[in-house]
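User: I'm putting together a teaching handout on how sequence relates to shape, and I'd like one worked example. Could you take Flagellar biosynthetic protein FliR from Sanguibacter suaedae, show the sequence you're using, and then write out its predicted structure as tokens right after it?

Assistant: Happy to. First the sequence, then the structure tokens directly below it.
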Amino acid sequence: MTLSLSLASLEALMLVGVRIVAFLVVAPPFSHKGIPGTVKVMLALGLALAIMPRVTTEASSSTGAYVLNLLGQAVIGLALGYLVALVFAAVQSAGAIIDLMGGFSLAQGFDPMTQVNGAQFARLYQLTAVVLLFVSDGYQLVIGGLVRTFDALPLGTPLNLAAVGESAVQGVTGMFLAALQIAGPLVVVLFLADVGLGLLTRVAPALNAFALGFPLKILLTVSLGSMTFLAMPRIVEALTGTAVETMLGVTR
């Protein structure tokens, strides 16, 4: 029994695998440190074997040209992963806003698993988004969008850096807008609580209402913060669709 594998097919497998690995390292939920690097490599290899028959490429004329092509695929994967991470950063930003308004930002810490530097709600929201991506099969939509990029941006085609920059700028704007939409109701409640405490201090200065500010805002944040979780599945679903559209929009 003989097994023949052409040089062009082997090179295509390597190129596809490099783009996928670079994407999985950056893009959520695969960027979570709880997923071992071996699993990411095996997933990338399995996807590369499945995608390889649908890509067309020729053997490189020289080693230098092939190395440059590998670097180009790594840059494409990192760029696409960054755009996806930028979309889902809205959840973490919403938690950071709630921490700031609720008085939890004084207890900031770095979570090495999610690579998030924030307080309780920022880390909780980020972890919730990762869990929902796996539970709701949203990660499959992300992988499906990555696979479709090989049709829109075949191997050997350079990435349009201008389109990536424009998408990154729009992604930052959309991230802040989505964060405000997620945390907006609770932020309004906490702001009204500050206004009420200020008016109470003006009416009765002897009460020293601001001494109750931190306990009251923490109570409101903990009590009403759970209401935001009712909308988290729909939020993650919407962000997943936005991430896939962003990836495909760059590669067009």
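A couple of points you could highlight for students: The beta strands are 109-111, 116-118. The radius of gyration is 23 Å.
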